[in-house]
Write a structure and sequence with these properties.
By secondary structure, the chain is α+β, with helices and mostly antiparallel strands. It has helices at 2-8, 12-40, 80-83, 85-91, 117-130, and strands at 46-50, 53-60, 68-72, 96-101. It folds into two domains: 2-40; 46-130, Rossmann fold (3-Layer(aba) Sandwich), CATH 3.40.50.1820. It has a four-stranded mixed sheet. A hairpin with a 2-residue loop joins strand 1 and strand 2 (53-60).
Length: 133
């Protein structure tokens, strides 16, 4: 392996330093890109404030007398509004659809509050009550 580095003319230490500098440059570029992209992303539903953080609630279906189906994602669903779209788009003609994105998922902010079932349930209920239909 050292022969290969000698042929190239780069020492092992210089190669490691080059790799570290490259990773630092890419990390800075990534952080700058995230901050500029965050400003351009528009949620497709309603943003409501619950317990000091924003939650995203999406509504679809215009029939006021139809029952409402509420979609809640389980663990590991990064964007429930888009993941459930193939299902709720078929049902929105007969039902009113509501998709609630828990804290940390989709367009919702990450929360510092405990993530036990009682907290998640109360935040979901509060988000549903704050949405204007």
């Amino acid at each position: 392996m050292k022969k290969a580095f000698k042929i190239i003319g780069i020492g092992v230490g210089a190669l490691i330093a080059l790799a570290i500098v490259l990773m630092l440059i890419l990390t800075i570029y990534h952080r700058i890109s995230l901050s500029t992209e965050r400003k351009r992303i528009e949620p497709i539903g309603h943003i409501v404030e619950v317990n000091g953080h924003d939650m995203h609630v999406y509504l679809e279906g215009e029939n006021a007398t139809a029952p409402t189906l509420v979609f809640l994602a389980g663990h590991g669903t990064p964007a429930p509004v888009y993941d459930f779209k193939s299902l709720y788009s078929l049902l929105s003609g007969e039902y009113r659809i509501t998709v609630v994105e828990k804290a940390g998922y989709g367009y919702s902010e990450i929360a510092d509050a405990p993530r036990d079932i009682d907290t998640i349930l109360s935040e979901t209920r509060m988000a549903l009550s704050l949405v204007k239909r």
